[in-house]
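Appendix B, record 7
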Amino acid sequence: MKALYEQVYAAIKKDILSGKYKIDDRVPSEKELSDQFKVSRITSKRALESLEKDGIVYRQKGKGTFVSEKWEDALMNANKQKKPLIGLILTDFDDTYGSKIISSIEYATSETAFVILKRSFGSPEKEERLLKELLSIEVDGIIIYPAQAEHYSSEILKMVVDKFPFVLIDRSFKGVAASSVSTDNVEAAKKGVEYLFKLGHKNIGVISPNEMGTTTLQDRFSGIVEAYAEKEVIVNKNLWCTNIKSTLAEPKSTQEEDIKEIEQYITNNPLLTALFAFEYNIARLAHQAVNNLGLHIPKDISIICFDEPALNIESWKFTRLVQNEEEIGKLAVKYLMDMINGDDTIKQKKLSASLIVGDSTASVFEKMAQNPAARRK
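C-alpha cells (predicted):
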C-alpha cells in the first residue's frame, strides 16, 4: 500500500480526471480531506503540497486550492517515470561495519533511485531531526539504522501510523510493525560461544559497548545465555564487561581509558581464558590491554569478535563473526522499493553470520585452566 498522503493525492487526481473538479474549481481543504480520509492534517497538507508541486493545482492564501488550467499537461509530466528519492540514516559507519551496507545500497539503487545519506551519531534527538528533514523534502521512503536508544523515535511511530515506506536495518523494535533486515544476532552469538566451548573454554568474558537498550546487543547476550543453557552450564554474568564507551558513535571515553578499564577487568577475573568482544574495535582495545598486562593471545587469552575491516591487510587476524552487510543493504532496498510500489506486506529477515577462524583463538590446556597463576606469570 502507498503512503497515506499518496492515497489522498491519487484520490484527488482521480476526481480531476473524472471531471468532478474542473479548471479553477476548489478542491477539498486540508481539514476536509483529513475528515474525509480519516488522516492527519499533516497527511492531507502533504497531499495538497504534492499536487501543487506537480502543477495539478494552485493555492491561494485564505481562499483554498484550485484545479490548475494546465492540469492535463501537469498530470502527463507527473506520470512520467521518476526515480524515487530515498533517505538513508545511519548512526555512523567505518571500515569495520557499515561501509559495505552503504556500498550495497548504492549499488542496488544505482539505476532505480537517488539516495540521501545522513548520520545521527547515535543521538535519538538528531535522528528525529533528520527524519523530519527527509520527510519535509518529500522523500519516497527511508532506510534507517536506528540510534542506539531503548525507545524509538516518535517520528518512526508516525511513519508506521501513516504507512509511510521505511525499513529498519541492523535492529528492530518490539511491538512495532515495520519491515527490517538484520543479522540473526542470537544465532551468531551462540555460534561464537559454542566455538569457544569446543576449544575447552568455560570462563568466557564478554565485552560490549555501554549501550544496552538495542535489540542487537540484547540478542547477542541472549545468544550467549542460550549457548550456556544448551550445554547445561550456568552463565557467569559477573564476567561481563559492559562499560566500553570509546567505540560509541559519540564517544564518552578515550581509547586509553577503555584499555585501562579492560586491563582492570582482566586483572579482577584471573580465571578468564577467552573474551567475546561485541565489536571489532573493542577486540582491538582488548588485544592492547592483554599485551599491556604481559599476556599473550591466544596462549593466555583467546579473543573472538564481530566483524572485520573491509580491507584487512594485517597478516594477524581475529577469529570473528562476519555479518552479511551486502545482503542486508540489498534486501533493505528491495523491501523499501516494494513498499514504494504499493506492497504493504511487513517483511522481517534475519541473516546468518559466518564464523571465520583467525589467529586469536586456541584450545585451553588443562593444566593452565586449573592453574591460572602459572598461566599468568
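Remarks on this record: The first strand starts at residue 26 and ends at 27. The radius of gyration is 26 Å.
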